[in-house]
């Protein structure tokens, strides 16, 4: 029996919603409802990274910090309101998160193409992938179908985000609570092959730690004095700070990790052999990074009827 186009689209939409209601994401979630989505996200991200290559790293960090606090629900994008203090001013986010205006720009173009259809959470997931690709990293199919949170919590952010001072055992424990194992931790930490960190976050490492190359510590002290200069920036990867490659791991082997938490991955512990593997094999790193990104993107997503599709990523409808 022939099925009308309208009936087919209705059945397809119901099928997608049913899948999402059971917590299942799909790489084809918007194929019918917003077919131009991927092209729009890619175009805006290309413009943003062309203007500022660091932006690829910033959007990737936004996605990490979103997923680690109550799941991948775009709660990190919410501004504070009279009823809640959000995640933007938490210890791990204050003065360091950036790229919100890029997500705003993507959302505006997506709304013009398919109104009230695509969540900010899914836009952020796609933008993070495209940022990696634009900096020379691997690509992957992004599972979609998330909905947006209606609230955010500074307390949850303070409790769930890793700190620059974290030990390896602390990091493994934190990631395990999110369903990510030590291999995921080590692969995802490779995101620090791009981007920069503030002096206040790496000062304890370059002045107080022993597991650091003396020459590297001296170099970093030139722009990060023992007192003052908290906001001064340094590249997380000294060699290729705006290229997504495996140099981060080579730095760790040479004891030139910028953050204490970075160097903990190569400090006579359980992840040393994996760091050595990634330092010598870009393909091994890329393969594990992609797998870990997909896994992280599936941390407690809002699907089905909970949440909403925000029209403005900074505030609830």
Automatic annotation (TrEMBL):
Plant heme peroxidase family profile domain: residues covered: 24-317
Signal peptide: 1-23
Disulphides: 34-114, 67-72, 120-313, 199-224
Chemical reaction(s) catalysed: 2 a phenolic donor + H2O2 = 2 a phenolic radical donor + 2 H2O
The protein's required cofactors: Ca(2+); heme b
PANTHER family xrefs: PEROXIDASE (PTHR31388:SF208), PEROXIDASE 72-RELATED (PTHR31388)
The protein's name: Peroxidase
Organism per entry: Musa balbisiana (Banana)
């Amino acid at each position: 029996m022939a099925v009308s186009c309208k009936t087919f689209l209705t059945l397809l939409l119901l099928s997608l919603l049913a899948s999402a209601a059971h917590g299942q994401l799909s790489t084809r979630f918007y194929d019918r409802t917003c077919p131009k989505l991927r092209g729009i996200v890619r175009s805006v991200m290309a413009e943003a990274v062309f203007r500022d290559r660091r932006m690829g790293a910033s959007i990737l960090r936004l996605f990490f910090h979103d997923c680690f606090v109550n799941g991948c629900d775009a709660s990190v994008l919410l501004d504070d309101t009279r009823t809640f203090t959000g995640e933007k001013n938490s210890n791990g986010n204050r003065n360091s998160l950036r790229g919100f205006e890029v997500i705003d720009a993507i959302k505006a173009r997506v709304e013009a193409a398919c109104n009230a259809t695509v969540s900010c959470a899914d836009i952020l997931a796609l933008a993070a992938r495209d940022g990696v690709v634009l900096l020379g990293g691997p690509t992957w199919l992004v599972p979609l179908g998330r909905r947006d949170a209606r609230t955010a919590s500074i307390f949850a952010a303070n409790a769930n985000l890793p700190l620059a001072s974290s030990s390896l055992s602390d990091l493994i424990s934190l990631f395990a609570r999110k369903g990510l194992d030590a291999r995921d931790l080590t692969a995802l930490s490779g995101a620090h092959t791009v981007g920069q960190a503030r002096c206040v976050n790496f000062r304890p490492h370059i002045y107080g730690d022993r597991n650091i190359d003396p020459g590297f510590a001296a170099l970093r002290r030139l722009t990060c004095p023992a007192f003052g200069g908290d906001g001064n920036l340094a590249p997380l990867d000294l060699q290729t700070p705006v290229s997504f490659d495996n140099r981060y791991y080579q730095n760790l082997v040479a004891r030139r990790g910028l953050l204490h938490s970075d160097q903990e991955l190569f400090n006579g512990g359980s992840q040393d052999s994996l760091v050595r593997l990634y330092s010598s094999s870009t393909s091994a790193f890329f393969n594990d990074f992609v797998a870990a990104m997909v896994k992280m993107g599936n941390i407690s997503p809002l699907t089905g009827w909970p949440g909403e599709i925000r029209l403005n990523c900074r505030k609830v409808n």
